[in-house]
Amino acid sequence: MWIDTHCHLDAAEFDADREAVVARAKALGVGCLVLPAVSTANLDTVRGLAHTHGFVYALGLHPMYVEAEPADALETLRDALARHRGDPRLVAVGEIGLDHFVPGLDRAVQERHYVAQLELARAFELPVILHVRRSADALLKQLRRVRVKGGIAHAFNGSAQQAQAFIDLGFKLGFGGAMTFERALQIRTLARELPLDALVLETDAPDIPPQWLYRTAEQRAAGQTSRNEPAELPRIAHTLAELRGLSLEAVAAATSANARAVLGPALA
């Protein structure tokens, strides 16, 4: 069975055919999706979808959206984590982190919410799902100060040294569609050379489409779409298998075991 460790199934891009998206994924052996929240507005939504389809979920505030959150957002998140503490499908605090790529975002606000959510994860004894975009060192600095039960560095694209630092802190590294691009040399090198027991697979659907779904700006303007979905995970995994010289079966077994090791046995 494949595990997609990062899928935004609640996204508006899936409103027209969400049931079919789930059915396609399950038909290809993608039996579990991890559904991370991104704001107070979708905490209940991801939980509901996880229970409806037999998946798992995470509750958190995404760094790109924290400036728009109400002043009591962290209290709302704490209340939700407390209310659902006994829910076996609640597996992490996420998606949280820092984004140093998008211009104009307030880094101080991001940092405050990130640290507060690490503290919540520690209080509720949950791992975290991290948004890492040109922010690995800043994330690691706080992880060394506020120790949590590991987690996943989603869509990892740092250096080998940063990768090892996350691994040393109990993290797995998420690889997905970006790995399928032949010009993504750094990501493909990491996917090939990092310890296999440190890797998990993800789609980030509907985002980060693999190479075969990519559309240029001109194509998108002409109406062609590039929506990613969890059914793409086995084909993405094929790239990892080729890079490492492994069978698909070996990659499925290893990455699924890694996901369960960090997020728990609910990822059945």
UniProtKB/TrEMBL annotation:
Record keywords: Hydrolase, Metal-binding
- Provide the protein name: DNAase
Q: Which domain of life is it from?
A: Bacteria
Database matches in Pfam families: TatD_DNase
Q: Name one GO molecular function term.
A: metal ion binding
UniProt: a divalent metal cation 2 binding residues: 131, 154
**Which family, according to the similarity comment?**
Belongs to the metallo-dependent hydrolases superfamily. TatD-type hydrolase family.
Protein source organism: Caldimonas caldifontis
Task: Specify which residues bind a divalent metal cation 1 according to the UniProt entry for this protein.
Answer: 6, 8, 95, 204
Give start-end ranges for the coiled-coil region(s).
none
